[in-house]
Model the fold of this input.
Amino acid sequence: MTKQTDRITEMEQYLDSSIQAAEKLQEALEVYEDNLENYLKLTDYYGSTLWRKDLDADTSGILPADLKRGVLSEDAVYDLITDTREIRVQMVKILSLISEWEKKD
Done:
């Protein structure tokens, strides 16, 4: 093979992987956007008066034993909020890198 065909083959691989990555990202962003209202409601609930009332009911043994209650643990929601912040930071970093790359031309 020549350098030219090697380069074209390499760039074709970059194209294929970039298309696949963009499609996966688009799908993930759509799922994330569709869930955003749920996430915002959850973060409003977390630490609120209602959340504290529900937590008190749980610690008092008022709630059914088989009730799923991860939302009442401080760690589960806090970890989600922290992870979401990290995702936003990563998204801004990626956008910044793309913007800088585009300015090179």
Notes: Residues 1-33 form one domain. The chain has a mean pLDDT of 95.
